Amino acid sequence: MYQELNVRIGSDTHKVFMQDGFFNKRLLTSKIHRHNYAEVHFLLGGDVVYRIGEEIYRAKNGSMLVIPAGVFHAGVERDENAHQAAFQIDCEVSEFGVYMLGSAVLAEFFSEIDRCISTEDYTGISAYITLFCRHFLAVEPVRSEHISDPGFLIFEFFSNKYSEDIRLGDLAASLHLSERQTERLVIDYMGAGFRETLTSTRVNMAKQLLAVSDMSLGEIASYVGYRTYAGFWKAMKKHGLTLPSDERRENEGD
User: Fold this and answer.
1) Which domains does the chain show, CATH number per domain?
2) Residue 250's pLDDT band (boundaries 50, 70, 90)?
3) 123 FRET partner, CA 20 to 30 A, in 68, 172, 204, 223?
């Protein structure tokens, strides 16, 4: 069984070559040989003795071995309980390396190998290979940026601060824009101006609380940011909602 995957690691795409030694997890001993590409071995469940170049190395359960291209190697002794998987990858590896991944994560990886054999879906395998290869490939660090998407920032502002005494100037300050620019952006992204968006956000939260909580109407009004019940009642009525009395809500809860 021979398969080839293209996996993206950092900004580069690498070819991964999977042969019988990847899918048949019992091929733990071999004659001395070498490959044109770097080879990566995974060991689960026991120890295996390898010859790497002129050295003898005992690999432990839960380890990953990375053998550079052109280096002679062989599996010379194995534990009966050990399982192994190996693939080749077209990347530059300068020296032999050993990395401890842990038996738990490798058990999941080996289960994913079994799953992909039956489903021919290599999505999970590709994700594991990408994760493992970052141990030995030089990958440019990923740097985060301050969030600059105004749509995201505006929505989160209303979603998180609707219960506070907020004003257009508060949002403008957080976006580092003028109030006029901010009002235009609110209309563009929310479909209405600042005041209407704030009111509709509070009303929607109140509707949710009416449906799922046993809070009184006064408690709901305060929770969603209204200082007076009259203001709350006016906003709900404007949005076509008729409020039940607290007595009726108590009866509905019984």
Assistant:
1) 3-133 (2.60.120), 150-253 (1.10.10.60)
2) very low
3) 68
Mean pLDDT of 114-141: 88
DSSP per-residue string spanning the chain: --EEEEEEETTEEEEEEE-HHHHSTT-----SB--SSEEEEEEESS-EEEEETTEEEEEPTTEEEEE-TT--EEEEEE-TT-EEEEEEE-S---S-EEEE--HHHHHHHHHHHHHHHHH---HHHHHHHHHHHTTTS--PPP-------HHHHHHHHHHHHTTS---HHHHHHHHTS-HHHHHHHHHHHHSS-HHHHHHHHHHHHHHHHHHH----HHHHHHHTT-SSHHHHHHHHHHTT-PPPPHHHHHHHH-
Per the document, the length of the chain is 254
User: What is the model's pTM?
Assistant: 0.63
**pLDDT of 248 strictly over 50:** no
